[in-house]
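Quick note —
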Amino acid sequence: MNPDLHATAEALDAADPLRSRRTLFVGADSPLVYFDGNSLGRPLKATVGRLERFARDEWGGRLIRGWDESWMDLPFAIGDDIGRVALDAAPGQTVVADSTTVLLYKLVRAAFDAQITRDPTRAEIVIGRNEFPTDRYVVEGIAAERGGRVRWVEVDDDTGVTTERLAAAVGPETAVVVVSHVAYNSGHLVDAEAITELAHAAGAFTVWDLSHSVGSVPIHADAWALDMAVGCTYKYLGGGPGSPAFAYVAHRHQAALTPPLRGWMGAADVFAMAPDFRPAAGMRRFLSGTPPVLGMLAMQDSLALLHDVGMTAVREKSVELTTFAIEVFEEELAPLGVRLASPADPANRGGHVTFRHPLMREVNAALWKQDVIPDYRDPGGLRIGLAPLSTSFAETLRGLLAVRDALARLSPDRLPSEGSS
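Predicted structure written out below.
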């Protein structure tokens, strides 16, 4: 191995202005290498105490009084925090509720219904062929329910939707465009402002999936004129396993959208128990059932930390981490036949990188047994998710060298030359 890589990792860690934040996370000081922060973030130590205090003092002490005292407002208070800290969005446009899948259904369906009511010829939903499965499945289901059509954008596995390919797909029949800001497979970062502008020029709404960018890549939802967006909170926002998702709907659209799932929590007067449903004003109309209070607790600590650090600093560290990972790849993995499946230009790359090789499924299984935790995605992709606040450069190097060694063991005929070992 090139000894300069160790020296580089040490120098980068020493110069990292966020290095002290790593100590705030449970398990970050353990030998385990965690490359899956883009799927499930590490918990903060502060959250351990928060969960205990909540069970003892709020749930156990206040019991049902907690709803009147604070819990009913949590979806909106935390939603506004997400908007302020991670979306650069004004208050009153973001709410926490349900899962990403359910919120995506609600927004795409409401946007499609609004469009086709206004113009029955606008019956197409445009989406990339390689979008995350939930996004594709939801879109296909809505098209089948509402008599619409799916217009597929063909996209290479190593990229995401581009403005050029989208321009060829949208037109006078487009109702809604669904796009991921960062592609789940390759980490490709799209130009959200340009794509939104393109969709608007065609008279279409945009619904953005921010799951792999929120908390990792700066987002300017209001300035970019996004229409609607959803995203999960258990990745870079640290909400924990199965924590509820968030929905963003620009003020200008809220009154015109009819929620497709009518629940008591979305009614104008929640406790009127009225015989007919009348949707609430603002973001409350997009709620359905009882707020998932326990699932919202952990993200409060993560959002406070993100606010303290700032998204600019987070993005700078993220770019440095992924750039260093690619440097290690070039030195140690490329000689073994591994291919980079993420954009080389950091301006086009989100917070994770993907390396492809036919043996990566086996490599991933072997690594998990030795406490090195990336994840695998077909075809042959090993995803390396580098959470900027909890991942060090030394950890990144240690994990990628473990990838090299596992691949070399599984494929001895592809061992690197003596000069590179």
